[in-house]
Amino acid sequence: MTLRIGNASGFYGDRATAWREMLDGGELDVLTGDYLAELTMLILGRDRLKDPATGYAKTFLRQLESVIGTARERGVRLVTNAGGLNPAGLADAVRALAARLGLDVAVAHVEGDGVRALVPGLTANAYLGAFGIAECLNAGADIVVTGRVTDASLVVGPGIARFGWTRDDLDALAGATVAGHVLECGAQATGGNYAFFTELPDRARRPGFPLAELHADGSAVITKHPGTGGAVTVETVTAQLLYEIGAPAYAGPDVVADFASIRLAADGPDRVRVSGVRGAPPPPALKVGVNSLGGLRNAMTFVLCGLDIESKAELVRAQLTDALGPDGLEFVLARTDRPDADSEAAASALLTVSIRDSDPKRAGRTFSQAAVELALASYPGLALTAPPGDATPFGVFTGHFLPQEAVAHVAVLPDGTRRTIQPPATTEPLAIAVTSPGSQQPPPPGVAVPLGTVFGARSGDKGGDANIGVWARAEPAYAWLREHLTADRLRELLPEARPLPIERYELPNLLAVNFVVRGILGEGVAASTRFDPQGKALGEWLRSRVVELPPELLP
Hints:
26% helix
């Protein structure tokens, strides 16, 4: 027996037509949509400040209107976390939409993740598990709306409902968790954001969204609808498995999935089998994501052209510091210029000046006016990339933990019955992860090439931290990667990481090494003033760095 689960959204703002594409593209039993991220919760929190009736992903309703009838007709059940901070409100809105369209649709929702009474913040939401979703589906729901559940729960819940898994079926739950992690970011599993994208067929077309053929033992085949763009290969799946992870023990509220146990194998064109995943009891505490308002920020970018770039940047630094004082100012110079350039743009560097402050006047017009006033009184050729603007609020993300039994996990069934989901009876403290050092000996001399000539990478944000997963394409290359790409070598290649703690984990089954760089994103995506605030391009920066590789590894 196989359960076919598709994905139609990887984030709030993903391709609007994906729900229709997935429903029309082929057979499905369940279609999921993931809308929530740490930054999204902050956005929804600010929406709710303006209107308490909001707090959910409104785009889901617009997408649903064109497909709700098709899904009902074809018996495809929809599961989404678009409820955000107000799953009950979105469930009511879905019912109203169905009534307006003359459709008989059973709608249920999962709530209880909001824990602001226990952990103060603009938003405070525990990451719930999958058993509430399963309860809703078992009660006959056609559409299940949740708030903050783990992303993988959108897949694990339908698996529990179909196969009758209990909390003791740890390997099956772990396998479904891995399948959910592959699906959760949509087209990233089918060639989107893929390191070797130039090798993909029809790369000019939009990649299709992924689906999983989930089996009773928790194993799955990752694939996509026939005729859609992109590709599903062992490497595209590997890339997504490495996205936004930490230690191989991938902790969730229902199970700890051992990512080191994952086995991938090609299963035909655009088909990859995922098997062998081992599970362990979940930890006794639930992760809680908290967003708080951190103050106000503003930024201005100066164009520095031609000669004496460093001196020009230093003059701006001194002038603005004199005008405003040093508190909250940050200066980042991007040396995008080239010598003897044949265009003005190519001869120019960019100096971005950011400010963070609790005072709206200082962070607002006082700051931007100070920048503008330099127009005729600073370095030669001064130009700004945009007009002055007001300060905008930013948020700070922090992670907390609460005992599982302290959080009410409630499934609200289609008939209005409220059913409490009991926490797992068996839990185990999460073992402290042991990082792998790699060799302390320098690599042998080789051919100087960019690291990405041989290795792929994917990176992403985890609060104020970022991960960089690096994989090899063959065993000999993995032997070099495992031996020589150490945490210290990573610091050499990425100087911004030099002062920061770095954890390093090996994933031999995936021919991969995963790094977690602590604190590189500061107080999280919403507060970061980095050029790449979500750390999405750290992997590509690493791949561009030149290293010496043995000639036998080169393509």
